[in-house]
From TrEMBL:
Gene Ontology terms for molecular function: unfolded protein binding
Protein name: DnaJ C terminal domain-containing protein
InterPro entries the UniProt entry points to: DnaJ_C (IPR002939), HSP40/DnaJ_pept-bd (IPR008971)
Annotated signal sequence range: none
Residue span, Chaperone DnaJ C-terminal domain: 11-172
Domain of life: Bacteria
Keywords for the protein's UniProt record, in alphabetical order: Chaperone, Membrane, Transmembrane, Transmembrane helix
Length: 288
C-alpha cells in the first residue's frame, strides 16, 4: 500500500518494469478533511465548542483510494491523480524497481541470452523472454559471439502513444555445446529418437525394479526352515528383516539408475527438439 505524505503533497511509487509498461492500479492510504466524527460537522457539542475539531466542524480522517497509473511510464515521471477529499489531487512520483532480466534504454529494452555455439554457426530458434512472456525467435546462421539482435516491437510502450513500442535488443552469448549434442542440422532426428529411446530404457528399468521387488519372496526362518546366505567361504544365517533390507537397497540402486537414464534421455530429446522447431519460430530477429 502507498502512503501519502501531506508535508510534500506527494506519493513515492516504485514499480516493476512490467507495471510501468502496461499500467497498473495501486491502493493509497492518506488523510483528508471530513466532517467531525463528534459534532458531525456542526462545530458545537451540547452548546459548547466541539473539543474534537475546535469548532471548525471538520477534521482529518484516514482514507484509502485506488489510483490508476497509465502505461508507458518512466523513472522520474510525475503524475497528478484525483483522490477524494484532496482538492487538487495528489502527486505521484514514479520510481523503477530493479529488473533481473531487462535494462531500459529509452523505449528499448536490453537483455542477454546464452546460445550454444552450433546454433550461432548454423542458425536456429532460441527462447527469449519479453515483458509479455517467452517467445521463440529465429536467428540466422553465422552470428558472432556478442552479436546484438533487434526484436521489433518488444520494448516499452510510449506514454503518449501506448500502441507504439520500442524494440528488444538481445545480446547472444556463445555457450559451448556438449560434444554429443553438437550435431547441428545433421542427424537431429536421430538425436531425438535416441533421447526417447533412453527415456524408454530408463522407464523400463524403473518398472522392472518395482515389479521384481513387489514379487520377491522372502525366506521366513522357523524351527524347520533355516535361511542362509552362501558366500565363497562361509554360510551365514539371515533374518527376514535382513533380506527385506537387502532387497530394498537393490531396488533403490536400480530405481536410481532408471531415473538417471530417463533424465539423460529427456535432455537429449529436448535438445534435438530445439533444432527441429527452428522452422516454427514466429519472430525473426536481425542484427542491430
Amino acid at each position: 500500500m502507498l502512503h501519502y505524505d501531506p508535508r510534500t503533497g506527494s506519493i513515492e511509487c516504485r514499480l516493476a518494469l512490467e507495471d510501468m509498461a502496461f499500467g497498473c492500479e495501486r491502493e493509497v492510504e492518506y488523510e483528508a478533511a471530513g466532517p467531525c466524527v463528534n459534532c458531525e460537522g456542526r462545530g458545537v457539542d451540547e452548546g459548547d465548542t466541539c473539543a474534537y475539531c475546535g469548532g471548525s466542524g471538520t477534521m482529518l480522517l484516514p482514507r484509502t483510494a485506488i489510483i490508476e497509473l497509465p502505461p508507458g511510464l518512466s523513472e522520474g515521471d510525475v503524475l497528478t491523480v484525483p483522490c477524494e477529499g484532496i482538492e487538487d489531487g495528489v502527486t505521484v512520483v514514479v520510481g523503477q524497481d530493479h529488473h533481473p532480466v531487462f535494462k531500459r534504454d529509452g523505449l528499448d529494452l536490453r537483455t542477454a541470452v546464452n546460445v550454444e555455439e552450433f546454433l550461432l554457426q548454423e542458425g536456429g530458434a532460441i527462447d527469449v523472454e519479453t515483458l509479455g512472456g517467452e517467445i521463440l525467435v529465429k536467428i540466422a546462421a553465422g552470428l558472432a559471439d556478442r552479436t546484438v539482435l533487434r526484436v521489433a516491437g518488444q520494448g516499452m510502450p510510449a506514454r503518449e502513444d501506448p500502441g507504439h513500442r520500442g524494440d528488444l535488443l538481445v545480446t547472444v552469448i556463445a555457450e559451448a555445446a556438449k560434444p554429443d549434442l553438437a550435431t547441428g542440422g545433421r542427424g537431429v532426428d536421430r538425436v531425438v529418437a535416441g533421447g526417447f529411446a533412453l527415456v524408454l530404457v530408463g522407464l523400463a528399468i524403473i518398472v522392472a525394479t518395482v515389479l521384481v521387488r513387489a514379487g520377491a519372496d522372502v525366506c521366513e526362518p522357523s524351527e524347520q526352515v533355516r535361511c542362509v546366505r552362501v558366500t565363497s567361504t562361509t554360510t551365514v544365517e539371515v533374518s527376514a528383516d535382513e533380506q527385506e533390507e537387502r532387497l530394498d537397497l537393490m531396488a533403490i540402486a536400480f530405481g536410481a539408475t532408471g531415473l538417471v537414464v530417463t533424465g539423460v534421455g529427456v535432455r537429449v530429446a529436448y535438445r534435438g527438439y530445439q533444432r527441429i522447431r527452428e522452422d516454427e519460430a514466429p519472430v525473426q530477429a536481425s542484427p542491430q
